[in-house]
Amino acid sequence: MRRQATDHLFSSAKASAMPAFKKIREKMAASTRNLVAFGKDRRGIAALEFALIAPVMIMLLLGSIEITNGFDVNKKLARAGAMVGDLVTQQQSITKEKIADIMEIGTSILLPYRRDLPTITIASITVDANGNATVAWSQRKQGQAISTPYTKGSAITIDPNLKIPTSNFVRVETSIAYIPLIAWTMKDTVKTSIGTSGPGIAMGKMIYGRIRQGDAVACTNC
Questions:
Q1: Which of 25, 96, 147, 211 is the most buried (most CB within 10 A)?
Q2: What top-level branch of life does the organism fall under (predicted)?
Q3: Does residue 43 surpass a pLDDT of 70?
């Protein structure tokens, strides 16, 4: 009798537990089916790939734009110096007003870059019979201000190869601060011609021009 009672209790417990185990198996099977379906589902994979790749592509795009703009400004800076020197060396005599107009033309070459204005310095240099170089006249445009950077008759340092006795030539110096829209990892701070500063690259060029007409370019009111 006791054994029959024990078997009866075991059968009753087993019967009552079966539905619970069945539900657990059904839930596990459903979860497995969902995982398999999720693994096979390709919807939205393009959006996921774009989300992963887009930041890298955007960084590459912006970087290439800044590099291209930097090379363009550097090339225009050299072109502006060459153009200013060419216009000045074609003259036999010149005035401060005409020099200012020529430097304004040189400034316009850097457009549409507007985060700084170029500083343009023009110096007429005379080399005497002993090879000593001195300044005949000079003018500088920094921002919108015009000044005289070198004292007339003062000594000036030039390339030794240009120290040809009794010669005259014109030197044009151009400089500008290239400040990118995005500083990236730039740590050097550059100062603009208008007094502001920011992370960027200081660019500069120096052009020497041979006198085209006569012996020298005389400035009548410098």
A1: 211
A2: Bacteria
A3: no
Give the Cα separation of 214 and 2 in Å (integer): 136
Single-letter code of the amino acid located at 174: T
pTM above 0.85, yes or no: no
> E-strand spans in 17-152?
93-94, 119-127, 133-142, 145-147
CA 185 vs CA 180, 182, 200, 207: distances in Å = 11, 9, 10, 31
Which residue in 147, 143, 139 sits closest to 121, CA to CA?
139
CB 169 within 8 A of CB 214: no
- State residue 90's pLDDT score: 94
**Count of C-beta atoms within a 10 Å radius of residue 52:** 9
206: phi then psi, degrees, rounded to nearest 5? -135, 125
Question: Residue 144: how many CA atoms within 13 Å on its side-chain side?
Answer: 0
Name the DSSP class of 214.
Answer: S
131-177 pLDDT tens trace: 999 999 999 999 889 999 999 999 999 988 989 999 999 999 999 99
Q: What is the 3-state secondary structure (H, E, C) of 133-178?
A: EEEEEEEEEECCEEECCCCCCCECCCCHHHCCCCEEEEEEEEEEEE
